Structures are given as C-alpha cells and as structure tokens.
C-alpha cells in the first residue's frame, strides 16, 4: 500500500513525465538535407503578407515559446544584453547575410521563431567561430554530429560552416530533439547544448526523487543552465527592444544571397572579381571553404549577393572550367611524393590525383603534373583557415610577465606537455592559436606560446626571449628602437598600448619582448 501511495504522489507532482525510454535518439532521425521547396508554402505567405516588415518582425510573428517567463536567470541575461548595444549592433550586422534564409527554413518547418536567435547564443552569428570543444560555424556543430547530419569536413571544405547546409542540419537536429522530448522545446534546446543523454539522465534522476522534470528543475551543466535563459532573454529583447532601451538595426525581409553553380573548382578571388564584390564578402557568404578555392570534389557552387548573381553568371559563361583555376606544370624529381608536392603547392594528394593520371600514389621521375594554384598571393586570402589562424596568433596577448615565443611542434608534443613546460594552461595555448585543446598537434606546426617559464630557450628557432624595460633616450623613435632590438614597430605599439606613432619623450619607459640572441 505504501508503494502505491508513493507512485500516486509522483504522478501528482509530474503529470506529464511519461518515460522517454522508447524514443529514438535524434541521430536516428536523420532526414534528407535537401533544401525544402518554398513553393510548397501557401501562395504569397512570405513575399506578399510580409513584404512591408523587417526580418525582426518576421521572427516575432513566428514566436511559439513562453515569452512571459520571468526568473532570476533570464533577468540576469536580459540585463547583460540591455547594457551592450554595441554587441547587438555587431551580431545584427553579421546576421544580415544569413537571417532571411534561416527564417525561410523555420517557416517551412513551422518551428518557433525564437530558433532564429539561437546562432546569437551559439556563435554571435560569427561563421568562423570555433569553440574549445571543437564546435564550428554559426550553429556550432562538433565534428561527429556534423558528420551524422551529412556535413562533410576535409582540408578544402567544412560543411559545419556552410550556411545553408548547417542551418538545415541544425533545424532537423532540433526538430528531432523536440520529438524525443514530446514537443518540450526547453528540453530540446538544452539537449542541443549538452546532449540528449545528459538531459535524459537529469530527467531520470528527478523522477526517482519525485521531482518535476521541466527544464527549470533539472540538474544540468552550468553552461546549459545559462543557455536556455540566454535565448529567452534575447527573445524578450527582440520582442520589445524599445522597452529595454535597445535599438535593433533594420534588416530587410528579402533574400540576401543567391546560389551560383560554378560547375567545377574555382578560385575565390576570381569569383569575387567576376561578381564585383570584395573577397571578404565572398568568404563571409562561403565560410565553408577553408582554402583559396572551392573544393575540387564539390559542392561546385558559390553564394553571392543576390544583386550580383547575373553579373558573375554572365562572366562564367565566357570561360571554360579549366580557366576557373590557375594551373602550374611541375616535373617530378627524385625524392618527390604526392604528399610533399601537395604540401609545397598548398593543395592535397586527392586534388592532384583528380586532375592527373596517377595510379595509386606512385610517381615517376620526369612525370609532368598539372597543379591547381591560387591566382593571387596566399596572404591576400585573408579568411582562409591558415590566415585566420595567423591573425589569431598575432593578436594573442599573454598574461603579465610572460614572454612570446614561436614553437615548432615536435614528435611527442602535446598541449599538456607544452603547458607544463611553459607554465601556462592548456586552454590558453589553444586560444592563442585559434585551436581546441582536443585538436591534434602535427610535427612542424607553428604555435605561439606566451611562456611564463624563466629565460625560455626555443631550440627550434634558437631564440632566448626576455622581457626588457627600456627607457627612451633623446633622439629615439619607435623605428629606431625596433631596429635596435630586432622587433617590429607594431609589436612595440601593441605591447605598450600605443595607438599611433606618437612622439616619444625622453624618460618614457617601454616594455619589449626581445630575443637576446638577435638584439643589437
């Protein structure tokens, strides 16, 4: 009898807490990643009824979550957003390229409009965002989940950053989670952040204790406990920006980009030139391309601003596929291998095999290879994976009292061993190099490390870096000091927070990080 009473009490506390054990995991609910046909919508639903509103209003019109929720977590997140207008401006500027497409996909699936704000929580709408957990793109897919949802990842291409494919994958993933958790979007969102298994475990724990199993009563990781309130706070802000003292930049309710079929691999700088836009714009619309060109294995397409579509298609029609990439002839010599040649020309063995009659990996001395190469200097492709990493390394700042060194990865190196050697954290080394602590280290790879070890000697580069306090003398200039200590003017400015080439006063003290084996 006592047992029956206990069951009844649990049912009174949580009347909707049916077992989830019979539900399929979301990874088993994978559907086709083809873009849904928008023509399946009722005629005029998008273009006619909403032609006079901006995209933010369209997001509001699709709200389905409980926006009246009030609690301490939501209030804390809302207060942060209210006090950061510059952040709202920044994410809105990024969202302008992608938000229309995202809302089209949400409309087709009749999902909550609040989901369109999720990339702000995930990545601040930065298509190149990369987290400590190896999550990438505006929807922050980790490698394994990306592959489950058909997002290919290789040297040339990362589908997790493909705006269209990753959006469709994220919405299918979220919809699968909502089915698993019986339409409870709060639990679905929590599972998107921490994993369905984590949420299921928390539900089971509460059931055993006869506690409620809604999101707000579950014991979840701190990041997840902040994740859902952050989205609700954003929804409140977007619902009534004036009430919260925020201005939402206007975003037109019309397509921003169009898809152009290139038919074959294409240099991104050439695509930019043909479209009449900056290379930066091409990269931000096509962040999935890691290098200087589209992938040789496809997809053979490029997104361009919609008003530039006709221009690039007309120019593409006037050139043959082999003119969309610059080709270089190379004669195989003794000691060459597919891997060494590919590395020298910033390509891959597979790309070489695709355009050359190579059986397996066997090369013969004297063979002539055709090699795809960039039209321009590689440094001009500023948003390629290598150049983004270089910018991250150059802009990294270490803790007080640390010295910046360049480290060439050796066999046996790991983030952990380097952190111990240089007395800094694993996460810091990863952050300075735009990496995740889970990323593999490859021999020969260059790392920037702000070491806290005394008098670090970098054997690979024969550097001894020391922090030097230099007192400015009469006649000194930034250029003269830079030459004297074999450093760069812009590094002196960065180390000392000098915003311009100001006139130095005798007696001023500068901080320098100097390789004492090279300084004059």
Structurally, the number of domains stands at 4
- CATH architecture descriptor text of the largest domain: Orthogonal Bundle
What radius of gyration results from the CA coordinates?
27 Å
End-to-end distance, in Å? Answer: 90 Å
Q: DSSP helix count?
A: 20
Low-pLDDT stretches are: 1-9, 11-50, 457-462
CATH topology annotation of the largest domain: Lysozyme
Strand arrangement within the widest β-sheet reads 7-8-9
Q: How many strand elements?
A: 9
Strand content bin: 5-15%
Helix amount, in percent? 25-40%
Written as H for each helix and E for each strand, in order along the chain, the element string is: HHHHHHHHHHEHHEHEHHEHEHHEEEHHE
Overall body shape: globular
What is the CATH top level name of the largest domain?
Mainly Alpha
> Overall mean pLDDT score?
85
SS-based structural class? Answer: alpha+beta
Largest sheet: 3 strands, antiparallel
